[in-house]
Fold this protein.
Amino acid sequence: SPIYGLTIGQEVNNLMTFETGFYVNNYGESYRIEGEDFGYSASNALVAYQIPLRLKAHLNLLQNKLSLVTTVGYTFAINGDYGSSGSGSSFVRSSFSSNNDSTRTEYISTYSLKKTYGLIEAGLALDYKFKNSFSLYLAANYLTGLSRVVEADVKYWINAEPEQTGSVFSNGDYYSIILGLKYPISNLWTK
């Protein structure tokens, strides 16, 4: 699911930058019935409002043009769907099986486990500076949650077998791949 937002940063020195911002993250949820290639469910889950605090270290790779950037950070998140729940069901018949295997699932998701939660972030990026002060960057980050945010109770039936149950949970973990442009806004008033 896409994440929307804005980031602002302040260079501490030539090697370090402090960054913060505001993001709207539309989480999705999915699960697969283990051992079955055709038993799967995916849906929208919760909307989170996130405020990251990051420290970035820059390692010059090529004549002050190309840098490797490492990121560590903490994100404070507000669960926009706190107090709500979701439910759904699906029926899937395998198109790969010769004996018409099928899976039926039902689930109830609870989004009210935490109103606020925290995420720890680590990442790597490549940052290329152009002559006009713009930078193009490509970043890969991983954020891991500190507490359980979503829980889904799942009931499923494979073919005519008896009902089986399971639980799926999330701490809000996610990977992000970011392609972006940066411009030092201080250039607007220092030129």
User: Anything to note?
Assistant: The two ends are 39 Å apart (CA to CA).
